[in-house]
Fold this protein.
Amino acid sequence: MTDAAEDGTRPDRLAGLDPELREVVAETESLGVPPWHALSVESARRIEDELFTSAADLPVDSTLDLAIDGPDGDDLPLRVYRPAETPAPTLVFLHGGGWCLGTLDSAADLARRLCRRVGAVVVSVDYRLAPEHPFPAAVDDAIRALRWTREHAAEFGGNGVVGVAGSSAGGNLAAAASLATPDGEAPAVQTLLYPIADRDFGTDSYEANADGPLLTRADMRRFWREYLRSDVDAANPYAAPLRADEATLADGAPAVVVTGERDPLRDDGAAYVSRLVDAGVDAEHLDYEGMCHGFLSFADEVAAADAAFDDLAAATRERLAAAGGEE
């Protein structure tokens, strides 16, 4: 099937959205920003920063910018968000952006909300981006950040329980980092917000939502092209977690996976949950009608997104508490 954005037709892509979300998305689209796949990577990065870097009043107890040694010997920047009460569990957070876009600043709202609502220390990771650093550079950075956080979380308020979280491409990286941990050392939870789980553009959700809003099938094709070194990488479970075998999945972390009905990636998240459940892993799927890709970033404007954030925070806290031996 040809994508609507590619054949020139323009159906009402906002039909079926939650009314409040529809208004927010319409306002965003009124800015006239071309779709991601039509932009250079440099231009897309600049626009993404302008659109999603926010000064919203989401206070946390403190923040700290630091850098650790990355897998290649260069600095790997991190930003640590501390909640009001510590010691607390810790979440390593990987931002979205199709592996090509995103910064610590553009991810700040999600990181702050996780810190506040989960009550966790959040370690946000400024991983290397494609195409300058294709797969598996970002996965290596995610694994390095998770291992470092395990070793040092107590120094900035952690209680020894460490999970991993991520949105979109960051959800992909969070899942990969969970799969890559040695037997018996899986994170306490993998909280995945509309994750990319496979390079399959023919799923029902890709067909229904090929033209978005906010993320299109053409965008995802472009992101995958920039991220992978070759088609061979698409079969690697650290690039496409749905390709992991059952034994690998069985050793993974308990999962909380959030999806939206109007997201091309909706079926990626649903299928990943099914694979985990089949492998005997505790996995909860939180799916929301009328929600599109990235909807949790609008929690301050959309009541249904705000409620969904409360749901995922509660489900994440439950897994973190269980890992810490709490009832």
